[in-house]
Amino acid sequence: MAATLLAARGAGAQTLRGTGEVVVCTWGGSYAEAQRKAFFEPFEKESGVRVRVVGVPDLAKLHAMVANKAVEWDLVDAEGQMMLRLAGQDMLERVDYGIVPKADLIPELAGEWGIGSVAYSYVVGWSTKTYGTRSPAGWKDFFDAAAFPGRRAMYAQPMPALELALLSAGVPKDRLYPLDADRAFRILEQHKPLVNVWYKSITQIPTLMRGEEVDLIEGTSTRMIELQRGGVPVGWTFDEGAWMQSFWIVPKGARNRENAMKLMAFYTRPENEAQFTQAFPLGVPNRKAYALMPKETLALLPTSPGNIERQFRVDSAWWAKNVEEITKRWLAFVG
Amino acid sequence: VPLLLFLVVLLGYPVGRMLVAELGSDRGAAAFRELATTPFYRDVLVRTVRVSLTVTLACLLLGYPVAYTLATAPRWLAAPLLVLVVVPFWISLLARSFTWLVLLQRAGVVNQVLQAIGLTREPLALVYNEPGVYVGMIHILLPYMILSLYAVMRAIDPTLLRAAASLGAGDWQAFRRVYLPLSLPGVAAGSLLLFVLGLGFFVTPALLGGGKVTLVAVLIEAHVREALNWPLAAALSCVLLAATALVLLPASRILRLERPAGAAP
Fold first, then answer.
1. What is the ipTM of this complex?
2. Distances (CA, A) of A122 to A159, A220, A222, A223
3. Which residue positions in chain A have pLDDT lower than 50?
4. Are A169 and A184 in contact (CB under 8 A)?
5. Please, which residues have CB within 8 angstroms of residue A319's CB and are 6 or more apart in sequence?
6. How far is Cα A248 from Cα A267, in angstroms, rounded to an integer?
7. Disulfide-capable partner of A116 in A109, A170, A193, B135 (CB 3.0 to 4.6 Å)?
């Protein structure tokens, strides 16, 4: 058994050997640090390919790079709708499943244009100092000023604010799409006076909660966990959370396409994915990784069984089609 | 002239090319129609001009005494003071904006002090609104104003003030009738610089405004980065550029005419 395992490992290692470098564009901070430890460094050791990490993924930049044939990034950690919009304009390389092993991936995360990187979730978060043992159960409570008086912060992005508005008005989470944008904006218009801060960047979530600037927040599960681990009195729930899937993509004309595919292949290893989730409790694409995680980690992942059913998945395809029009309306709405 | 060439080649050409590429098509014309017919865009433009003007005026009032002190202080004192003025340039704009968030938030240092000394009972809303944007923008732009003023003030001959005194002018009169007019070119240069810089701000208003203070540059950024609606972004940039030119050209003419004889060249 050990021998076959070793042999399998040996074969894998052989195919991943390469030369030169691969430029990875990912999100900064402790997230990129965790990726470096769990994936990039061991990949360098095994393949001999140098991994250069740059930040941060930017649709407009990538679009301009590909349009002008000056592609600086080989592998990009992209939001789902980013991938679909670029694919729609023929700006991506197809995933080479001759290099990337597909068998153990969650089927919908082994796409034509990318493989799943992480799944994350926007959830209801609150101050337990303000509400004690009372917990908001979803977005209806989040916007209920009588039941939960207090100050509120939301992410200054229409995705997934439109979905959250519809949920607050009682639309069932399996019947959100195609979004009724007119209705969502009407509901948001009513809720608007309740929202004290529209935050621009995810990094503001800890500042807002630590500083007791708000009592309720549309936050990411990872930031809420980070706050709890730091001893800040906050609560949060996966109930009615909006989970989204990111993908690793390779821009068309990437200089180190081959190396990018190899790093993607390495990213699918369940042991490394399990190690990554210790630092960052996010959904990972290999089904087998979940069996290697301790119970406490599983409980924190947006996509583990038991959690995923409580949330809804944001439909990247709908957003890729409608984001231009919605962004226009959204800017006029918040500004 | 070399500087002008530099600007034309490295700034004028790419900006011009971008505008032509994005606006030359039917989508460009449609974008302008959209700007003209949507009241929201006019509101944002008016707000941008208002915020920028307010910040410029505030920086002038705050910066003038500082620059005056720097220019008239003995050299051993002026040098370290000048360093203090320049230090913020080395700190990233983002870091400084975040620092203001932490200081001005409801449980922040400023509110805690105000409540501790009994001036206020409830925390004041100091940030995530328009005043918060003013604080952040003034802090970031003030050094530019001080340096513009200082450059002109340092060239003012101190013997002119002594001459005024010898002719019977009091301190205030000498300042008002000699020093102030001589420093006006600095006031003009600093104000124009700040006004133009202020028009293009987007990180600070987006963070400190709590998403509620949308300025033109915030819109441009969103249309470029999120909507990928480059024609609309280009049209907005065009309008901002035109508005800037509209203010700058007459302003620079008037201010030059007012420059009194004998002012520093």
1. 0.80
2. 10, 4, 9, 10
3. 1-13
4. no
5. A80, A81, A159, A326
6. 9
7. A109
Residue A122 region by backbone torsions, left for phi larger than 0, else alpha for psi between -120 and 50, else beta: beta
A335 contacts B44? CB cut-off 8 A: yes
Q: Is A212 on the interface with B (CB under 8 A)?
A: yes
pTM of the predicted structure, to 2 decimals: 0.86
Which residue blocks in chain B are alpha helix, DSSP H? 2-7, 13-23, 26-37, 39-72, 75-86, 93-104, 109-116, 130-154, 158-166, 171-174, 180-199, 203-208, 216-225, 230-258
Query: With contact defined as beta carbons under 8 Å apart, do A262 and A47 qualify?
Result: yes
Give the dihedral sign, CA A69/A71/A76/A82: negative
User: Which pair of tokens denotes residue B54?
Assistant: 């307010």
The tens digit of pLDDT for each residue in B30-55 reads: 888 888 888 899 999 999 999 999 99
Least CB–CB distance from B207: residue in A196, A200, A332? A200
Per-residue pLDDT of A248-264, as tens digits, reads 999 999 999 999 999 99
Helical pair B39-72 and B130-154, crossing angle rounded to 10 deg: 40
Give the minimum alpha-carbon distance from B32 to chain A in angstroms, rounded to a whole number.
14
Max Cα–Cα distance, chain A, nearest Å: 65
**Do the chains contact at A334 and B211, CB–CB below 8 Å?**
yes
Residue B201's identity, in one-letter code, is F
- Cα A119 to Cα A75, A316, B120, distances in angstroms: 17, 12, 45
- Chain A residue with minimal CA distance to B42? A332
| Chain A environment of B108 (Cβ under 8 Å) | 211
pLDDT of residue A2: 45
Cα A149 to Cα B162: distance, rounded to the nearest angstrom: 66
B154 in contact with A, Cβ within 8 Å: no
Q: How far apart are CA B62 and CA B68, in angstroms?
A: 11
For the segment B206-259, what is each residue's pLDDT rounded down to a tens digit? Answer: 889 998 899 999 899 888 888 888 888 999 998 888 888 887 787 767 666 455
Give the residue from A58, A325, A334 with the most B CB atoms within 10 Å of its CB, the best one to mutate. A334
CA atoms of A190 and A186, how far apart (whole Å)? 7
Cβ–Cβ below 8 Å for B211 and A200: yes
Show residues of chain B in contact with A58, CB under 8 Å: 225
